């Protein structure tokens, strides 16, 4: 589940991810390595970002999985997305006065803390990195849009298939999966809160997908038994993840 | 519905909006006015941005309303958001190889075309503008997250109330509304596609809101009859719009 911390900035999941958008120069990598300086650890059960709190830092996730969610005044919770190595945690929080969401670890997490000042300083040293971070934020938004379509227009089984294919594509970009599948630490409760289903429903949908020979989620591993048919079922078009880079030389 | 085009960059809706995040310097304003050079007009019924197309420009909306939406392979459509003056149209499209969504005018639109090269050039001339555009993109994402919560966790009447309060807050930021209400060109069909309801259901929900003395949507105008009670019903907390700036002096 966890990955060894890479020795050099260009091997980091963050750099691998941004390389889908921009060819990173030595200067870009040097500015990025400054953003890695303050590495912190978070245990499961302790929020990394708090909804309603001001003066939050953002983090670049180095290893482990996290999830972002909103608590409603009615007491319910909606998981917005999961974060994997290379993703920002709380990028919005570092730009907004008040964080509008929570982030908590799904597994033990190592992440580098970045303040607003450090981020703006990095932007002025390399505007290409600013463009790359804007690209990453746009990709995050594109995923939330897909999750909106998931909830609004897809059946439970299509939703689950789409979700597993998206996770696989994201993990492949940072070298943590291949087309055969991936290690997945998500419980059925987390899947339920992300997909707007009950845990019982999640269990039924996963059984259906397995019995139809499409995908098996067992013992912390997702195995694609028939990748192409799963793509057809989910109407999965990975263009919105924009992984065929770099666009910017 | 439409606004006169402002004579100076600092009076533009785009500048008014970004001022919620950053105090714009003379240099920032001069770079922004370069982004306004190629003003174009779009009639209703003609897509401004096309899903699946490459090499798209982005636009800064100067006057009129637009909407962004996705067409599913199944043929259905999901409206992701509406855009008002000061908003970007297709910011993701200008960074991605392939646009993952469509944008079409809701009313006649005037908008300034911005290419990827122009945007990156502007970032290198003023990294503060890069931060402000990242803020604007983050705010767009925060709104999509709220729409996700809308679909996942709110009833039809709460959803409509939240949606009208959000639009009002956004329009107030660019000087096109006050607490009493706003001019609104959206049809019940557009509301339905945005809120995941049928047009008949939209009609019923609007009647309920009117009969309870909360809000009246008639003849292209939304009038808040009891703003505070509407906020309570919708559990509307405008922190996610981050309008209390500027944060960055």
Automatic annotation (TrEMBL), chains A, B:
Q: Where is the Cyclic nucleotide-binding domain?
A: 20-111
Keywords recorded for this protein, A-Z: DNA-binding, Transcription, Transcription regulation
Tell me which residues make up the HTH crp-type domain.
Answer: 154-228
UniProt xrefs under InterPro entries: cNMP-bd_dom, cNMP-bd_dom_sf, HTH_CRP, RmlC-like_jellyroll, WH-like_DNA-bd_sf, WH_DNA-bd_sf
A biological process term (GO) from this entry = regulation of DNA-templated transcription
Domain of life, source organism: Bacteria
- Give a GO molecular function annotation for the protein: DNA binding
Presence of keyword Transport: no
Q: What is this protein called?
A: Crp/Fnr family transcriptional regulator
